[in-house]
Write a structure and sequence with these properties.
The protein is α/β, with parallel strands linked by helices. It is 68% helix and 11% strand.
C-alpha cells in the first residue's frame, strides 16, 4: 500500500513538473507563436571562446550548451529567436556574434547529418549481415552436422541485435537530434540593449 502511495506521489510530481514547464514556456518564452530565448551577456567574451583567433571565431562552450539545452524544451511548432541582452555592441561585434552562432550551429547540423548517413550505410550492412548469417545458420543446421552452430548463432544474434536496436531505438533518437539541431541552425538572433530591456521590464 505504501509503495503504491509513493508511486502515486511520484507520478503526481511528474505531471506537476510537466505542466509547470508548459506554463513557464507559455508565460515567459512564447509570444505570438514565436519562442524567445533571453540570454544576458556582459561582453562579447561571454559568447566567443577566449581561445578563438580573429577571423576564426568559435562559440564559448557554456554559451553553446545553454542555447542547445534551452531549444530542447521548446515545442517543435514554434520558431526560435535568441534574444541577446547586452551592452551597446558595435555593428562589427554583432556581426561576429551572429556569424559565429550561425556557423557553429550549421556545423553541428552538418556533422549530425554526416553521422546519420554513415549510420544508414551501417544499417544496410546490418541487413545484409542478418540475411547472410541466417542463411549460413540454416545451412549449418541442415547440412553440416559437426559444424560449430554456436558461432553461427552468435553471428546471427549480433547482426539481429544491431538491426533491432537501430530500427526501434537509435533511429528515432537520431531523428529527434537532427530536428533539434535543425531548429538550432535556423534560429534567429536579435540584440537588445540592456538599458532598454531593464526599462521595459520595470514598466
Amino acid at each position: 500500500m505504501d509503495s503504491l502511495l509513493k508511486k502515486g506521489i511520484k507520478i503526481t510530481r511528474y505531471f506537476y513538473k510537466k505542466s509547470f514547464l508548459n506554463q513557464r514556456l507559455q508565460h515567459d518564452v512564447i509570444e505570438n507563436g514565436v519562442a524567445y530565448i533571453p540570454c544576458r551577456i556582459k561582453s562579447i567574451d561571454d559568447v566567443i571562446s577566449k581561445y578563438s583567433v580573429k577571423g576564426c571565431e568559435s562559440l564559448d562552450t557554456e554559451f553553446l550548451m545553454f542555447i542547445i539545452d534551452f531549444v530542447e524544451f521548446i515545442p517543435a511548432e514554434y520558431p526560435v529567436v535568441l534574444q541577446i541582452i547586452c551592452p551597446r555592441f558595435s555593428a562589427e561585434e554583432k556581426r561576429i556574434i551572429s556569424d559565429t552562432i550561425a556557423a557553429e550551429t550549421d556545423y553541428l547540423l552538418g556533422r549530425t547529418e554526416k553521422f546519420l548517413n554513415l549510420k544508414k550505410i551501417k544499417f544496410v550492412i546490418t541487413i545484409v549481415g542478418v540475411v547472410i548469417s541466417g542463411i549460413l545458420l540454416r545451412i549449418a543446421r541442415q547440412s553440416l552436422q559437426n559444424a560449430p552452430l554456436e558461432f553461427f548463432f552468435v553471428l546471427f544474434w549480433l547482426f539481429a541485435d544491431a538491426f533491432v536496436r537501430y530500427l526501434f531505438i537509435e533511429k528515432w533518437d537520431f531523428r529527434e537530434e537532427k530536428i533539434h539541431l535543425g531548429r538550432l541552425a535556423s534560429m534567429s538572433v536579435e540584440f537588445i540593449d540592456q538599458d532598454e530591456y531593464t526599462a521595459s521590464s520595470s514598466c
